[in-house]
Hints:
The protein is an all-alpha fold and 643 residues long. Helices cover 72% and strands 0% of the residues. It is globular, with a radius of gyration of 27 Å. Homodimer.
Amino acid sequence: xTREEKKKLLGDRYEKYTIPIDSxxxxxxxxxxAGMLGGSSSLGNFRVTGDGTAGGLTKAISVSGSSPATLTPxxxxxxxxxxxxxxQAVFGLQRKEREISKAxxxxxxxxxxxxxxxxxxxxxxxxxxQASMIILDEMEFDAQVVTTPxxxxxxxxxxxxxxxxxxxxVMNAPxxxxxxxxxxxxxAMAVAAFAVGGPFGAALGGKMADQRGRRGAMLIDVWIFxxxxxxQTIAQDILTIIIARLIIGFASGYSSTVVPIYxxxxxxPTLRGTLGTLTQFCLVIGILIADLMAFxxxxxxxxxxxxxxxxxVAILQLLMSPFLLESPRWLLNRDPSxxxxxxxxxxxxxxxxxxxxxxxxxxxxxxxxxxxxxxGTQASILxxxxxxxxxxxxxxxxxxxxxxxxxxxxxxxxxxxxSFFEGIISNPLIGTTIIGAVNVAATYVALLLMDSCGRxxxxxxxxxxxxxxxxxxxxxxxxFLNNILAxxxxxxxxxxxEIGLGxxxxxxxxxxxxxxxxxxxxxxxxxxxxACNFVVGMVFPYLNLYLGPYSFVPFAFxxxxxxxxxxxxxxxxxxxxxxxLVAEMARRNSQSMVYEVNEDEAGAIDLEWRKxxxxxxxxxxxxxxxxxxxxxxQPIDSNSHNF
Length: 643
């Protein structure tokens, strides 16, 4: 994005927050890195001219006529991360975060060496290595600071994903004890209703997050889980179970959209991949917990306890809701001068100095500028996304992989494995629980493979391994192989899913599609994913009934198609090489800008800022005491209190 495009998007914000390079604040901001890297002759002295020559490291050009403004290399690196890492918490995104950090550290260190005089090759190499390590260490410092407000945000958001996983697996075991005598169709509808509500929740989640705020949208999700869990627990017939599952499915689809956004905007860029991984672990652990709880409670007298877990967990989430903070990105988008956003940033990042707070505000605004999605209808944005051949291929590949993910039959295993294992092993619950445990372990293995393998290669291994597993399952059910091999094959099938078809369809969107298109692409993928999920949940009981030992054959055909699509069409989406990233940064930083505090205003606003924050905390505490605090349902007035 050019300087003119950024100026157009930011409007008044572009010119308001600049600082002359020779001011005290600018000098103090550079002093730390300058001291660590050799004093006045080191990185603290860098300045890049407007043409991007190797004369320095400027990423800020004042448009108000003053000298170019300069930040420390680590501060510029953080802005680079905010610019390049999507505001989404996605499983496996850690690699992209590290690659950007390392590339920028190398880029900054190269500029440092280029500015040095009379150094031998050995001294240049040593200087480059030391500078790169110091800058990288400072850039990744954010990942080591986890504050209490961020912890509460992580707990509540991750628990929503736990409930998604729990309700994926909770219907697996109690089929025979929940209102005995129901038909196959009725139970299939109860299971598949979960996926019917999903796409509607996914579609509405993003809209509610924009309208009500990320915090408000999260709390609405918790209330929907509570309603669905309560209705399912007190149900008096199978129809009520179906309605409750529809509501819980809506909450789950809603969660799949809101949780990555909320955590991605609350966490610094260096933590977004980690938190995405955490939420994925919460989901698979939820499936495992549902399997384990089936042992004591999948009985005629205990099945309501299984369903009550959703309600109880939602109540615990609501008890923690007073500690949840709103997304600073959402607040700043509505009002760049929001004091509430600054108060939240200070608490989230554990900052002590108001100037540091303003620097972090700048990071959010720069990141929003780079990832800004132009206003327009969904159709017009999709048309723009589809018009570019490379973007079109990536979007089409993402959609094909989302279909392959669900139509591969993975949720047939999590929904119906207990009934599937009847007659194959003596206690089907044991087989189901083994699958749940293997699923958790395979998720960890997948995390390790993300750092060393290409995305296309993982899809090929994943779909190929799942295809062969389906063949072994069919041969075992036909009697050509021992029954125990069917159990082994299903576990291999789950392992192969987790290393490829599980995470990569989502990761491709976050890794390689431009930031401003990520939201719309994620929304499309989520809705298609839930729709295919419904098809599998509804159809598999009939496949099992009418095809018998051949019930996994349709899944094998889908997996064969995915394999050949990946082999012949899918591009390698692992990302740019370090050299390409450095070259791109050099081009981008030659004409760029940063957001900084105006020195003349900085001292004057400190006292006012502190008073405003004290007043804000008093007002919120008074609202909590009176019971009028906004927990997600009161209308938000963007003009009140300048928030």
